[in-house]
């Protein structure tokens, strides 16, 4: 009785020669296929990144050359473009700008954009920032500065600047130096929806926290830090370039540009101000326009300025009478809110005095006019 193989294979111990032997190499190649594809993809990505970097370098060089031909010299010291594999990082150990009317330096500077989002650029800069213009110079430092620009093929969509622990001083003015500081500063800009194409309108938003300009403290009646919040729309702003400031402002003025103040809020200790209105430049390049103003605590600052000149002409009791009348006039009257509503003049925080409506403030002919009174010894100078 012979033995039979239980697995159906040959009995002499030789391996089977069925199709299983032919599948072995194919299976092994299949295992390596994903790695081969990954390597090819990495090579393609690497080649694409370096190609894009070359294009970016060419665009930067072309822009710098065009700026130089227009009289604007930009210098990026020790420029490098890195960031492989997923982003681009443009680095300058210092960045400087020179033109006939102004020059500045800042650095180091780093600008970063992701490969998949090249039109969204984030910039970080380290101080100090030094600028010189028309006999004035300023030195500014900060703890942290970050800016961002989001653009499309049609232009910018949003620009932002955020600065913490800002400090600086301006020299060459009278008095000099003029020191200033702020714990936090934010600036944001975007095209105004529905108005950018026709009016070239740009929305601006600014916030300044705990700002100080000591030279102004005697005028404003206290040394407390100030807070400022501004929301405005600037028309005819789409044409701004890097020309001289005088050229840019004159182009803007001639085009009928305006600053529409939707809200201006300022606080300094117990003194508060709220304003809205429209501003522009007159033919003599001075600020012009009209503002609706509400204040709390500022009438004690404004009234003496007006009554000083008017009362001096009368002297004695006449001066006191004029000062009293002007003070009451500038005190305005509070708008009574509707039943159950707080009203626009209600205090922002419990315990604060309510806001009072001032007479209309007009900027005209180089003067500041509050109601029928022109603020004495205050002349608006041409901006350029």
Automatic annotation (TrEMBL):
<keyword id="KW-0812">Transmembrane</keyword>
<feature type="region of interest" description="Disordered">
    <location>
        <begin position="1"/>
        <end position="21"/>
    </location>
</feature>
<keyword id="KW-0472">Membrane</keyword>
<feature type="region of interest" description="Disordered">
    <location>
        <begin position="333"/>
        <end position="356"/>
    </location>
</feature>
<protein>
    <recommendedName>
        <fullName>DUF2125 domain-containing protein</fullName>
    </recommendedName>
</protein>
<dbReference type="InterPro" id="IPR018666">
    <property type="entry name" value="DUF2125"/>
</dbReference>
<dbReference type="Pfam" id="PF09898">
    <property type="entry name" value="DUF2125"/>
</dbReference>
<feature type="compositionally biased region" description="Low complexity">
    <location>
        <begin position="1"/>
        <end position="18"/>
    </location>
</feature>
<keyword id="KW-1133">Transmembrane helix</keyword>
<feature type="transmembrane region" description="Helical">
    <location>
        <begin position="31"/>
        <end position="52"/>
    </location>
</feature>
């Amino acid at each position: 009785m012979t033995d039979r193989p239980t697995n159906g294979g040959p009995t002499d111990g030789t391996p089977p020669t069925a199709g299983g032997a032919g599948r072995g190499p194919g299976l092994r190649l299949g295992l390596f296929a994903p790695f081969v594809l990954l390597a090819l993809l990495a090579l393609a990505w690497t080649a694409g990144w370096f190609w894009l970097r070359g294009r970016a370098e060419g665009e930067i060089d072309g822009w710098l050359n065009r700026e130089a031909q227009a009289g604007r010299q930009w210098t990026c010291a020790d420029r490098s473009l890195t960031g492989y594999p997923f982003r681009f990082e443009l680095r300058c150990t210092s960045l400087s700008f020179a033109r006939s009317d102004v020059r500045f330096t800042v650095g180091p500077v780093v600008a970063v954009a992701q490969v998949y989002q090249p039109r969204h650029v984030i910039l970080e800069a380290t101080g100090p920032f030094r600028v010189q213009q028309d006999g004035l110079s300023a030195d500014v430092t900060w703890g942290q500065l970050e800016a961002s620009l989001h653009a499309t093929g049609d232009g910018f969509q949003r620009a932002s600047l955020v600065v913490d622990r800002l400090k600086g001083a301006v020299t060459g003015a009278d008095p000099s130096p003029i020191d200033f500081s702020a714990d936090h500063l934010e600036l944001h800009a975007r095209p105004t929806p529905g108005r950018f194409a026709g009016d070239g309108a740009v929305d601006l938003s600014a916030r300044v926290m705990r700002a100080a300009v000591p030279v102004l403290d005697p005028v404003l009646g206290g040394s407390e830090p100030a807070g400022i919040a501004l929301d405005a729309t600037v028309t005819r702003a789409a044409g701004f370039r890097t020309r001289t400031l005088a050229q840019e402002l004159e182009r803007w003025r001639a085009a009928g540009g305006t600053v529409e103040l939707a809200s201006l809020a300022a606080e300094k200790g117990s003194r508060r101000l709220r304003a809205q209105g429209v501003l522009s430049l007159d033919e003599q390049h001075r600020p012009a326009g009209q503002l609706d103003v509400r204040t709390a605590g500022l009438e004690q600052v404004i009234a003496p300025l007006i009554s000083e000149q008017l009362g001096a002409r009368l002297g004695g009791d006449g001066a006191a009478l004029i000062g009293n009348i002007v003070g009451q006039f500038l005190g305005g009257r509070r708008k009574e809110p509707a039943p159950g509503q707080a009203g626009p003049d209600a205090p922002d925080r419990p315990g604060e005095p309510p806001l009072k409506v001032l007479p209309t403030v007009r900027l005209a002919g180089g003067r500041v006019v509050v109601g029928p009174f022109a603020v004495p010894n205050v002349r608006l100078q041409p901006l350029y």
